[in-house]
Design goal:
Blueprint: H1 12-23, E1 27-34, E2 37-42, H2 43-59
Antiparallel strand pairs: 1-2
Helix pairs in contact: 1-2
Length: 72
């Protein structure tokens, strides 16, 4: 189909927000926590974590264009 894209072009924040709304209850990340155990978070939970992290960085004075390193 010429002229019709099946993949939308969007920024990472736009993509994350779209997925939080569209797939809120679906698993966004899944990782192994032990030999026979796993943990996961949904897109809704990921959206909350990202908003909290963003608010924290903004409260520290981080502005658009600043570079930030995050260690866990």
């Amino acid at each position: 189909m010429p002229g019709k894209w099946y993949i939308e072009q969007m920024t990472f924040p736009e993509l994350l927000n779209r997925n939080v709304v569209k797939f809120g209850t679906r698993r966004a990340q899944w990782w192994k926590t032990g030999p026979n155990t796993t943990t996961s978070i949904t897109y809704a939970e990921l959206g909350i974590i990202v908003k909290q992290l963003t608010a924290g960085l903004m409260s520290l004075g981080v502005e658009k264009g600043d570079r930030v390193g995050i260690e866990t």
